[in-house]
Protein backbone atom coordinates (compact mmCIF):
# COMPACT_ATOMS: atom_id res chain seq x y z
CA UNK A 1 0.00 0.00 0.00
CA UNK A 2 1.56 3.37 -1.00
CA UNK A 3 2.47 5.80 1.81
CA UNK A 4 0.82 9.19 1.98
CA UNK A 5 3.45 11.95 1.77
CA UNK A 6 2.93 15.10 3.83
CA UNK A 7 3.68 18.46 2.31
CA UNK A 8 6.70 20.29 3.82
CA UNK A 9 4.38 22.87 5.45
CA UNK A 10 2.19 20.19 7.03
CA UNK A 11 5.30 18.34 8.12
CA UNK A 12 6.67 21.41 9.91
CA UNK A 13 3.34 22.02 11.62
CA UNK A 14 3.21 18.43 12.79
CA UNK A 15 6.76 18.72 14.11
CA UNK A 16 5.98 21.90 16.05
CA UNK A 17 2.85 20.32 17.49
CA UNK A 18 4.83 17.25 18.56
CA UNK A 19 7.58 19.34 20.17
CA UNK A 20 5.05 21.48 22.01
CA UNK A 21 3.25 18.38 23.30
CA UNK A 22 6.51 16.84 24.51
CA UNK A 23 7.50 20.09 26.23
CA UNK A 24 4.19 20.30 28.04
CA UNK A 25 4.43 16.66 29.10
CA UNK A 26 7.88 17.32 30.53
CA UNK A 27 6.67 20.40 32.38
CA UNK A 28 8.82 22.79 30.34
CA UNK A 29 7.93 26.06 28.70
CA UNK A 30 6.31 26.17 25.30
CA UNK A 31 8.60 25.95 22.30
CA UNK A 32 8.81 29.29 20.50
CA UNK A 33 7.07 29.19 17.16
CA UNK A 34 9.70 31.48 15.63
CA UNK A 35 13.24 32.56 16.39
CA UNK A 36 14.05 35.61 18.47
CA UNK A 37 12.78 38.79 16.83
CA UNK A 38 15.05 41.32 15.17
CA UNK A 39 14.53 44.65 16.90
CA UNK A 40 14.52 46.98 13.91
CA UNK A 41 15.60 50.60 14.18
CA UNK A 42 18.95 51.97 13.09
CA UNK A 43 22.12 51.69 15.14
CA UNK A 44 22.10 55.48 15.38
CA UNK A 45 18.66 55.37 16.99
CA UNK A 46 19.59 52.54 19.35
CA UNK A 47 22.74 54.37 20.47
CA UNK A 48 20.80 57.61 20.95
CA UNK A 49 18.12 55.88 23.01
CA UNK A 50 20.74 54.34 25.28
CA UNK A 51 22.71 57.57 25.66
CA UNK A 52 19.74 59.82 26.38
CA UNK A 53 18.03 57.35 28.71
CA UNK A 54 21.22 56.79 30.69
CA UNK A 55 21.81 60.54 30.86
CA UNK A 56 18.28 61.11 32.14
CA UNK A 57 18.53 58.32 34.73
CA UNK A 58 21.91 59.53 36.00
CA UNK A 59 20.69 63.13 36.27
CA UNK A 60 17.55 62.01 38.09
CA UNK A 61 19.62 59.99 40.57
CA UNK A 62 21.74 63.07 41.29
CA UNK A 63 18.60 65.19 41.59
CA UNK A 64 16.99 62.78 44.05
CA UNK A 65 20.21 62.52 46.06
CA UNK A 66 20.45 66.32 46.23
CA UNK A 67 16.86 66.55 47.44
CA UNK A 68 17.63 64.07 50.21
CA UNK A 69 20.65 66.12 51.27
CA UNK A 70 18.58 69.30 51.21
CA UNK A 71 15.95 67.70 53.43
CA UNK A 72 18.63 66.63 55.92
CA UNK A 73 20.24 70.08 55.88
CA UNK A 74 16.89 71.77 56.40
CA UNK A 75 16.33 69.60 59.46
CA UNK A 76 19.76 70.51 60.82
CA UNK A 77 19.08 74.21 60.21
CA UNK A 78 15.79 74.00 62.11
CA UNK A 79 17.60 72.51 65.11
CA UNK A 80 20.37 75.12 64.99
CA UNK A 81 17.91 77.98 64.69
CA UNK A 82 16.11 76.64 67.76
CA UNK A 83 19.41 76.71 69.66
CA UNK A 84 20.04 80.24 68.46
CA UNK A 85 16.80 81.44 70.02
CA UNK A 86 17.74 80.02 73.41
CA UNK A 87 21.38 81.15 73.27
CA UNK A 88 20.44 84.65 72.17
CA UNK A 89 18.11 84.94 75.17
CA UNK A 90 20.85 83.73 77.52
CA UNK A 91 23.43 86.17 76.17
CA UNK A 92 20.84 88.91 76.40
CA UNK A 93 20.40 88.12 80.08
CA UNK A 94 24.18 88.36 80.59
CA UNK A 95 24.16 91.78 78.95
CA UNK A 96 21.24 92.88 81.14
CA UNK A 97 23.04 91.77 84.28
CA UNK A 98 26.14 93.70 83.25
CA UNK A 99 24.02 96.77 82.67
CA UNK A 100 22.39 96.48 86.08
CA UNK A 101 25.80 96.07 87.72
CA UNK A 102 26.83 99.39 86.22
CA UNK A 103 30.50 100.34 86.44
CA UNK A 104 31.22 97.99 89.35
CA UNK A 105 34.25 95.98 88.24
CA UNK A 106 35.15 92.48 89.44
CA UNK A 107 38.05 93.97 91.41
CA UNK A 108 35.72 96.37 93.20
CA UNK A 109 33.36 93.52 93.97
CA UNK A 110 36.20 91.56 95.52
CA UNK A 111 37.44 94.50 97.58
CA UNK A 112 33.95 95.16 98.85
CA UNK A 113 34.02 92.13 101.13
CA UNK A 114 34.01 91.99 104.92
CA UNK A 115 35.78 88.69 105.59
CA UNK A 116 38.36 86.45 103.90
CA UNK A 117 35.72 83.76 103.51
CA UNK A 118 33.41 86.15 101.68
CA UNK A 119 36.31 87.24 99.49
CA UNK A 120 37.09 83.66 98.46
CA UNK A 121 33.44 82.81 97.84
CA UNK A 122 32.92 85.90 95.71
CA UNK A 123 36.09 85.17 93.74
CA UNK A 124 34.86 81.65 93.05
CA UNK A 125 31.43 82.94 92.01
CA UNK A 126 32.99 85.49 89.67
CA UNK A 127 35.10 82.80 88.01
CA UNK A 128 32.09 80.54 87.49
CA UNK A 129 30.06 83.43 86.08
CA UNK A 130 32.88 84.33 83.70
CA UNK A 131 33.18 80.73 82.50
CA UNK A 132 29.40 80.46 82.05
CA UNK A 133 29.11 83.73 80.18
CA UNK A 134 32.12 82.92 78.00
CA UNK A 135 30.64 79.53 77.06
CA UNK A 136 27.30 81.10 76.19
CA UNK A 137 29.01 83.56 73.91
CA UNK A 138 31.08 80.81 72.25
CA UNK A 139 27.99 78.65 71.79
CA UNK A 140 26.12 81.56 70.25
CA UNK A 141 28.92 82.30 67.78
CA UNK A 142 29.22 78.60 66.90
CA UNK A 143 25.47 78.23 66.36
CA UNK A 144 25.41 81.27 64.09
CA UNK A 145 28.26 79.81 62.04
CA UNK A 146 26.47 76.45 61.77
CA UNK A 147 23.28 78.15 60.64
CA UNK A 148 25.17 80.11 58.00
CA UNK A 149 26.94 76.98 56.75
CA UNK A 150 23.64 75.07 56.56
CA UNK A 151 22.04 77.89 54.56
CA UNK A 152 24.98 77.98 52.14
CA UNK A 153 24.82 74.19 51.75
CA UNK A 154 21.07 74.34 51.06
CA UNK A 155 21.65 77.02 48.43
CA UNK A 156 24.29 74.78 46.83
CA UNK A 157 21.83 71.87 46.70
CA UNK A 158 19.21 74.08 45.05
CA UNK A 159 21.76 75.02 42.38
CA UNK A 160 22.64 71.34 41.93
CA UNK A 161 18.98 70.47 41.46
CA UNK A 162 18.55 73.21 38.87
CA UNK A 163 21.61 71.88 37.06
CA UNK A 164 20.28 68.31 36.95
CA UNK A 165 16.84 69.49 35.83
CA UNK A 166 18.54 71.28 32.95
CA UNK A 167 20.40 68.07 32.06
CA UNK A 168 17.15 66.11 32.11
CA UNK A 169 15.47 68.69 29.87
CA UNK A 170 18.38 68.50 27.45
CA UNK A 171 18.25 64.69 27.33
CA UNK A 172 14.52 64.86 26.69
CA UNK A 173 15.05 67.09 23.66
CA UNK A 174 17.81 64.83 22.38
CA UNK A 175 15.59 61.77 22.81
CA UNK A 176 12.71 63.45 21.00
CA UNK A 177 15.03 64.41 18.15
CA UNK A 178 16.31 60.83 17.86
CA UNK A 179 12.81 59.36 18.05
CA UNK A 180 11.61 61.62 15.24
CA UNK A 181 13.03 58.92 12.96
CA UNK A 182 10.38 56.45 14.12
CA UNK A 183 7.83 58.50 16.06
CA UNK A 184 5.09 60.92 15.10
CA UNK A 185 4.55 62.18 18.65
CA UNK A 186 3.19 61.30 22.06
CA UNK A 187 0.94 58.32 22.73
CA UNK A 188 -1.27 57.04 25.53
CA UNK A 189 0.72 54.02 26.64
CA UNK A 190 -1.00 50.96 28.08
CA UNK A 191 -3.17 50.06 31.03
CA UNK A 192 -2.66 47.23 33.47
CA UNK A 193 0.37 46.29 35.52
CA UNK A 194 -0.81 48.77 38.14
CA UNK A 195 1.39 47.49 40.95
CA UNK A 196 4.92 48.79 41.53
CA UNK A 197 5.71 45.45 43.11
CA UNK A 198 9.26 44.78 41.91
CA UNK A 199 11.97 44.44 44.52
CA UNK A 200 14.44 47.30 43.89
CA UNK A 201 17.72 46.33 42.27
CA UNK A 202 20.87 47.22 44.25
CA UNK A 203 22.11 50.82 43.89
CA UNK A 204 25.21 52.68 45.03
CA UNK A 205 25.04 54.63 48.29
CA UNK A 206 24.42 57.87 46.36
CA UNK A 207 21.45 56.36 44.51
CA UNK A 208 23.25 55.78 41.20
CA UNK A 209 23.34 52.45 39.38
CA UNK A 210 26.57 50.45 39.68
CA UNK A 211 28.40 49.54 36.50
CA UNK A 212 27.83 45.89 35.58
CA UNK A 213 29.21 43.54 32.96
CA UNK A 214 27.71 40.53 31.20
CA UNK A 215 28.80 38.25 34.02
CA UNK A 216 25.95 35.89 34.98
CA UNK A 217 24.38 33.04 33.05
CA UNK A 218 21.34 33.92 31.00
CA UNK A 219 18.62 31.39 31.90
CA UNK A 220 16.86 32.07 28.59
CA UNK A 221 19.80 31.40 26.24
CA UNK A 222 23.29 29.94 26.34
CA UNK A 223 24.82 33.41 26.78
CA UNK A 224 25.34 35.84 29.64
CA UNK A 225 23.48 38.84 31.04
CA UNK A 226 24.18 41.45 33.72
CA UNK A 227 23.08 40.87 37.33
CA UNK A 228 20.59 43.74 36.98
CA UNK A 229 19.06 42.14 33.88
CA UNK A 230 18.72 38.84 35.73
CA UNK A 231 17.08 40.69 38.62
CA UNK A 232 14.58 42.34 36.26
CA UNK A 233 13.84 39.00 34.58
CA UNK A 234 13.26 37.27 37.92
CA UNK A 235 11.06 40.09 39.21
CA UNK A 236 9.02 40.10 36.01
CA UNK A 237 8.38 36.39 36.25
CA UNK A 238 7.64 36.67 39.97
CA UNK A 239 4.94 39.20 39.06
CA UNK A 240 3.23 36.53 36.96
CA UNK A 241 4.61 37.22 33.46
CA UNK A 242 5.96 33.78 32.64
CA UNK A 243 5.62 33.37 28.89
CA UNK A 244 8.65 32.75 26.70
CA UNK A 245 11.60 35.16 27.11
CA UNK A 246 14.87 35.63 25.25
CA UNK A 247 17.60 37.97 26.53
CA UNK A 248 21.18 37.66 25.26
CA UNK A 249 21.67 37.86 21.51
CA UNK A 250 25.07 37.98 19.84
CA UNK A 251 24.28 39.92 16.70
CA UNK A 252 22.79 43.34 16.08
CA UNK A 253 22.93 46.54 18.07
CA UNK A 254 21.21 47.84 21.16
CA UNK A 255 21.44 46.20 24.57
CA UNK A 256 20.90 42.53 23.64
CA UNK A 257 24.57 41.85 22.79
CA UNK A 258 25.56 43.54 26.07
CA UNK A 259 23.29 41.31 28.13
CA UNK A 260 21.11 44.26 29.11
CA UNK A 261 17.87 43.53 27.24
CA UNK A 262 15.13 40.91 27.10
CA UNK A 263 12.28 40.20 24.68
CA UNK A 264 9.06 38.89 26.23
CA UNK A 265 6.80 36.99 23.83
CA UNK A 266 3.14 37.97 23.88
CA UNK A 267 1.80 34.64 22.61
CA UNK A 268 1.64 31.57 24.80
CA UNK A 269 3.57 29.60 22.16
CA UNK A 270 6.47 32.04 22.02
CA UNK A 271 7.46 34.47 19.27
CA UNK A 272 4.87 34.26 16.52
CA UNK A 273 5.13 36.09 13.21
CA UNK A 274 1.84 37.90 13.67
CA UNK A 275 0.40 40.83 15.58
CA UNK A 276 -0.80 39.94 19.06
CA UNK A 277 -4.57 40.10 19.54
CA UNK A 278 -7.08 39.31 22.26
CA UNK A 279 -5.55 37.81 25.37
CA UNK A 280 -2.03 37.99 23.93
CA UNK A 281 -2.41 41.72 23.33
CA UNK A 282 -3.79 42.21 26.85
CA UNK A 283 -0.83 40.25 28.25
CA UNK A 284 1.63 42.51 26.41
CA UNK A 285 -0.24 45.65 27.48
CA UNK A 286 -0.10 44.64 31.12
CA UNK A 287 3.55 43.60 30.94
CA UNK A 288 4.68 46.83 29.26
CA UNK A 289 2.75 48.90 31.80
CA UNK A 290 4.25 46.89 34.68
CA UNK A 291 7.78 47.48 33.41
CA UNK A 292 7.14 51.23 33.22
CA UNK A 293 5.60 51.38 36.71
CA UNK A 294 8.66 49.58 38.06
CA UNK A 295 11.20 51.40 35.88
CA UNK A 296 12.87 53.21 38.78
CA UNK A 297 13.12 49.98 40.78
CA UNK A 298 14.59 47.93 37.95
CA UNK A 299 16.77 50.47 36.13
CA UNK A 300 14.76 50.51 32.89
CA UNK A 301 16.24 52.40 29.94
CA UNK A 302 13.22 52.01 27.66
CA UNK A 303 10.31 49.72 26.79
CA UNK A 304 8.92 49.04 23.31
CA UNK A 305 5.55 47.41 22.69
CA UNK A 306 2.91 47.50 19.98
CA UNK A 307 4.15 50.48 17.99
CA UNK A 308 4.88 52.53 21.11
CA UNK A 309 8.06 53.26 23.04
CA UNK A 310 8.51 54.45 26.61
CA UNK A 311 11.61 56.50 27.46
CA UNK A 312 12.21 57.97 30.96
CA UNK A 313 12.65 61.43 29.48
CA UNK A 314 9.73 61.46 27.06
CA UNK A 315 7.17 59.01 28.40
CA UNK A 316 5.17 57.00 25.87
CA UNK A 317 5.53 57.92 22.20
CA UNK A 318 4.48 56.31 18.95
CA UNK A 319 6.99 53.94 17.36
CA UNK A 320 7.03 52.66 13.78
CA UNK A 321 9.22 49.72 12.87
CA UNK A 322 9.81 48.31 9.41
CA UNK A 323 6.32 46.84 9.29
CA UNK A 324 6.95 43.29 10.52
CA UNK A 325 5.53 42.19 13.89
CA UNK A 326 9.07 41.85 15.22
CA UNK A 327 10.26 45.30 14.10
CA UNK A 328 7.01 46.98 15.16
CA UNK A 329 7.12 45.05 18.45
CA UNK A 330 3.57 43.81 18.06
CA UNK A 331 4.49 40.24 18.99
CA UNK A 332 6.83 40.91 21.92
CA UNK A 333 7.66 43.44 24.63
CA UNK A 334 11.22 44.73 24.48
CA UNK A 335 12.91 45.74 27.75
CA UNK A 336 16.28 47.52 27.85
CA UNK A 337 18.09 48.09 31.14
CA UNK A 338 20.78 50.43 32.45
Biggest β-sheet: strands ordered side by side in the sheet:
3-4-8-5-6-7
**C-alpha end-to-end distance:** 63 Å
- What portion of residues is helical? 40-55%
Poorly predicted runs are 1-33
Shape verdict: elongated
Q: Could you say how many structural domains there are in total?
A: 2
User: Care to count the β-strands?
Assistant: 8
Helix/sheet category: alpha+beta
Radius of gyration: 34 Å
- Characterize the main sheet: 6 strands, antiparallel
What percent strand? 5-15%
Number of helices: 7
Task: Please tag this protein with its features.
alpha+beta, six-stranded antiparallel beta sheet, ARB-07466-like C-terminal domain-containing protein, 2 domains, elongated, two-stranded antiparallel ribbon, 338 residues, single chain, disordered N terminus, coiled coil, signal, ARB_07466-like_C
Describe this structure in words.
This protein is α+β, with helices and mostly antiparallel strands. It folds into 2 domains: 30-42 and 183-337, no CATH class; 62-178. The chain has helices at 8-25, 43-101, 106-111, 116-179, 227-238, 278-293, 295-298, and strands at 216-217, 224-225, 245-246, 261-265, 300-305, 308-311, 315-318, 332-337. It has a 6-stranded antiparallel β-sheet. β1 and β2 form a beta hairpin. α2 runs antiparallel to α4. The longest helix has 64 residues, at 116-179. The radius of gyration is 34 Å and the shape is elongated. The two termini are 63 Å apart. 32% of the residues are buried.
Sum this structure up briefly:
With 338 residues, the protein is of the alpha+beta class. Helix content is 53%, strand content 9%.
